[in-house]
Amino acid sequence: MTTPPVEASIKHRYDFGLPTLAQAPDYYKSRGFCCPSDYRDSPFQRAFNTDLGFYEYLSRRPDASRNFQLYMSALQKRSLQWVDWFPVQQQIIDGFDPTDSGGVLLIDIGGGDGHYIREFHERFPQAPGRLILQDLHSPSGPQGPGPNIEY
């Protein structure tokens, strides 16, 4: 038996990764092996016969979107956290004006369920300023975006 994140990872790779990968050789050959310059013109569109971008396509398929989020969550948990290697104090916190009571310190764009911004808040709970999570869907994880994090 497998865990939900592992099951979701397998489903996402099988349902989305393999069909897209299967289209890649012909797609790139037909374009002189150049990288796509438009996110709506890639092997993904060819594989799924759509003009939608990947995230737009997922947003219309709740089960697939859930699998993708679980897959990304599983990858994130296995990875070194950015707050472990980036000089957060010097590059983000020290440069913030503490007199700006409504100022935004950090925006996590495309942050899914907020793993990275939650990790930031856990490591730097006294950091000044607002923390904002932005994504195409509302947080669906068991914790939501977390305390002191706006969505």
Question: Can you give keywords for this protein?
Answer:
151 residues; mainly alpha; three-stranded parallel β-sheet; 7 helices
Kindly summarize this structure in a few lines.
This protein is about 50% helix and about 10% strand.
List the helices and strands and how they pair.
Layout: H1 4-30, H2 43-48, H3 54-59, H4 62-78, H5 82-85, H6 88-93, E1 104-109, H7 115-123, E2 130-134, E3 149-150
Parallel strand pairs: 1-2, 2-3
Descriptive notes:
- By secondary structure, the chain is mainly alpha-helical.
- The chain is built from seven helices and three strands.
- The chain has helices spanning 4-30, 43-48, 54-59, 62-78, 82-85, 88-93, 115-123; strands at residues 104-109, 130-134, 149-150.
- The chain has a three-stranded parallel beta sheet.
- The radius of gyration is 19 Å and the shape is elongated.
H/E element sequence:
HHHHHHEHEE
Uncertain runs are none
Identify the strand order in the major beta sheet: 1-2-3
Percent of residues in helices comes to 40-55%
- How many helical stretches? 7
Mean of pLDDT: 88
Radius of gyration: 19 Å
Oligomer: single chain
Structural class: mainly alpha
Shape label: elongated
Largest beta-sheet details = 3 strands, parallel
Ends apart, CA distance between termini = 35 Å
